[in-house]
Specification:
Layout lengths: L2 E6 L6 H14 L3 E5 L15 H10 L4 E6 L7 H14 L4 E5 L4 H4 L9 H19 L4 E4 L3 E5 L11 E4 L3 H7 L6 E4 L3 H13 L6 E8 L4 H12 L8 H4 L3 H7 L5 H7 L1 E2 L3 H14 L3 E6 L5 H14 L10
Parallel strand pairs: 1-2, 1-11, 2-3, 3-4, 4-7, 7-8, 8-9, 9-10, 9-11
Antiparallel strand pairs: 5-6
Length: 326
């Protein structure tokens, strides 16, 4: 089944307003939702960063579809705490929540004061964290000493079935690495050739489960307004890896993106006042082989986007009436 979901951007919108938006998205026909677990926004103009785990409890309690988040266990969020959090949500809302696990970004993780490790170390830390979480979600008492340290941890309140743990990857190498443990894959939508490579590397390495993509887009009735929204709110999206992994603050990200051209921004964000352009872009991603596409309108104002896409885009893509579990 084609699934089109709504991305709830904690970095841009206050949690109370975002709760209204996710309920609105369900009413408009979006079939699921996701968010990210950030401590720092991507720019000072975004100027928000609600705690996603607290918000997810409220969102799951006031909607009926599935919700998940992208998080990075190992530094800011200890894997035993992440396991406890996802277990609690899974027990309260069976079959409706999931977590995608990645190796993290300095902008969120440096707040602990611990050094920001290199990518190889972060991937080892992620693998260890996943193993710890799997064992905790199976009801084991876990002790571990490595890139992460765990001392006799146990999650006592467990769901009947552990929620799915997806692998979050923006490169083909990371996707292949995550295939060892992931229940599915999520990535950021890019050009079709790159998406095809990421998905192929994941599948070739034995990756199982559904594949999801998060699509950054900007829509407004006027083309100039759509571009202005993208430039104001998502110019920092032009910063590629490894800089996007390693920069530490919103101010550093803004400085790195200061010279972004309109063409640069269009590479990071699908920008158009024409709904058929967005429809074609979503269909392109689905055509590569992805099962789910989560739409992130990069503006702070979400209501007009939700209504327009719910009325025109979702039905055209065969979505808009079903509800999805995790």
């Amino acid at each position: 089944m084609t699934l089109i979901g709504f991305h709830a951007s904690h970095e841009q919108i206050a949690p109370s307003a975002l709760l209204d938006h996710v309920r609105h998205a369900e009413q408009a026909g979006f079939q699921a939702a996701m968010c990210s677990d950030h401590h720092t926004p991507w720019s000072t103009r975004q100027a928000e960063s609600g705690f996603s785990w607290a918000w997810l409890g409220a969102a799951l309690a006031t909607t009926s579809f599935s919700l998940g988040l992208v998080t990075a266990p190992g530094q800011r969020m200890h894997p035993a705490i992440v396991a406890q959090a996802i277990a609690t949500l899974g027990e309260m809302f069976p079959g409706r929540c999931w977590a995608a696990l990645g190796s993290g970004q300095n902008m969120n993780e440096h707040i602990t004061g611990d050094p920001w490790p290199d990518k190889a170390t972060r991937l080892r830390r992620l693998d260890e964290s996943v193993d710890v979480m799997r064992r905790l979600l199976a009801g084991e008492e876990v002790s571990h000493s490595g890139e992460v340290v765990v001392d006799r941890a146990r999650v006592w309140s467990l769901p009947a079935q552990p929620p799915p743990l997806f692998g979050a990857a923006v490169t083909a190498d990371s996707a292949a690495s995550h295939a060892r443990w992931a229940d599915g894959l999520i990535t950021v939508a890019s050009d079709p050739a790159t998406l095809r490579d990421i998905l192929a590397r994941y599948r070739d390495a034995g990756g199982r489960g559904e594949a999801a993509a998060q699509l950054h887009l900007s829509w407004a009735p006027d083309e100039g307004e759509a571009m202005a929204i993208a430039r104001d709110q998502w110019a920092t999206g032009t910063i590629g890896a490894p800089a996007s992994w390693d920069l530490a603050t919103a101010e550093e990200l803004e400085r790195a993106a200061a010279g972004a051209t309109d063409d640069d921004i269009r590479e990071a964000v699908t920008i158009s006042s024409d709904l058929s352009v967005h429809e074609a872009r979503i269909a392109e991603i689905l055509g590569v082989g992805f099962d789910r596409v989560y739409l992130h309108h990069v503006g702070k104002e979400q209501s007009a986007f939700i209504d327009a896409f719910g009325e025109r885009v979702l039905p055209a893509l065969g979505a808009g009436s079903g509800r999805a579990g995790a």
